[in-house]
Structure formats: structure tokens, C-alpha cells
Design a protein that fits this description.
Number of strands: 5
Strand order of the largest sheet: 1-2-3-5-4
Helix content: 40-55%
Structural class: alpha+beta
Radius of gyration: 16 Å
Order of helices and strands: HHEHHEEHHHEE
Number of helices: 7
Largest sheet: 5 strands, antiparallel
CATH class of the domain at 7-116 and 171-193: Alpha Beta
CATH superfamily of the domain at 7-116 and 171-193: Histidine kinase-like ATPase, C-terminal domain
Length: 195
């Protein structure tokens, strides 16, 4: 049986950057964690392991499905950003960080990855916009994006952040830590109720 981390431990995330949090969490029993480079095969393996680990600790299939679906969306987003910065060889050993933990009656998906400085403001604005919406507004925004059919160069229609917020039912927590003039390290925390 996995030990649960406390809300107090999670609140350390507000005081530490995600890389420090990852180090701190290594001493606790969590559902799953990863720190390193990203590849499509690796993310497929991470998802398979996460699915197995969730099956062992979570009895409610609806919760397992919600956590897993959100996890897929988040890891796909991370991989697309990783492809963009891979050419600059940014600290491959910590290019992405991923933690899946259970805190009392919720799951937390905590991720970190490098993003281009030029993308920071747009990403921040997109998350702030989504966080300002209620469930009905998120649903409408999702439909609107689907209907416009605008697809980005990465193959998405800008639905990722909206979909993550819709399915989690919670506000998205995030931070940016400047790494260089070209990149910032982006941290995202998604809370999913297990009730």
C-alpha cells in the first residue's frame, strides 16, 4: 500500500521550485515519479506504469480513468515542448519532471519542463483565462475551439489546458522560473478529486 503525502508536504511546493520538490519527494512513497529526458517511447512507458500503479491503489474506475486521461494530455503537452527545446540540449537529465502522488482525498499531477521565453506570456494568459472560467464556461470554450477547427503546427487546437481544467474540476496551479534569456522552467500542478 502506498503511503499518502500530507497537504502540508504539498504546500512545500509553494515555497520550493519543482526540482527541489522532486528531490524532497524521493524520500516519500508516491504513486510515480520521473526526472530526465523525454521521448515518445519513454512517455508511453511512463503511462503504462502509471496505469498499473493506479490500478493497484485506486478502487474507483471513474477516478482512475479521469487521472489517466489528464495524465495523457499533460504528458503529450510536455513532449511537444520538449521537442522544441531538445536541439539546445538543456540539462537533459532534468529536462522534464513528473510526479503523480495521492494527497488525502486527491491525486496531484505535478510536472515541470522548459519552455521558450517567447511562449511564457501566452501560456500564462491561457492558464489565467481558463482559471477564471467556471465549469459551464469551460465547456462552452471547449466547444468553440472544436468548432473553429484551427489546428496549430503542433497538431492541437489549443484544447489541452481547457481539457485539463475541465476534467480535473480544479484551478491549475503554475509557476515559471527563468532559466536563461531563452528559456524558463514551467511547473504545473493539477489536482483531481478521488471522492
Amino acid at each position: 500500500m502506498q503511503a499518502l503525502i500530507t497537504l502540508e508536504q504539498h504546500q512545500l511546493l509553494n515555497q520550493l521550485d519543482i526540482q527541489s520538490y522532486y528531490q524532497k519527494m524521493q524520500s516519500n512513497s508516491i504513486v510515480m515519479s520521473y526526472k530526465g529526458a523525454a521521448s515518445n517511447d519513454l512517455l508511453t512507458s511512463i503511462l503504462a506504469i502509471a496505469q498499473t500503479n493506479l490500478a493497484e491503489i485506486e478502487g474507483k474506475s471513474v477516478v482512475k480513468k479521469r487521472v489517466f486521461t489528464i495524465l495523457v494530455e499533460i504528458l503529450q503537452n510536455i513532449y511537444h515542448h520538449f521537442e522544441e527545446i531538445e536541439a539546445d540540449n538543456l540539462h537533459e537529465d532534468d529536462s522534464i519532471i513528473f510526479i503523480l502522488s495521492k494527497v488525502e482525498d486527491s491525486y496531484l499531477i505535478i510536472t515541470g519542463n522548459y519552455v521558450a521565453q517567447g511562449d511564457v506570456i501566452a501560456l500564462k494568459n491561457r492558464i489565467d483565462e481558463v482559471n477564471a472560467m467556471n465549469a459551464e464556461q469551460l465547456k462552452e470554450k471547449y466547444r468553440e475551439r472544436l468548432n473553429t477547427g484551427t489546428v496549430s503546427a503542433k497538431g492541437g487546437a489549443g484544447l489541452g489546458i481547457i481539457d485539463i481544467a475541465r476534467k480535473s474540476g480544479n484551478k491549475l496551479e503554475y509557476s515559471f522560473k527563468e532559466y536563461s534569456s531563452k528559456y524558463s522552467f514551467f511547473s504545473l500542478t493539477v489536482k483531481i478529486s478521488a471522492i
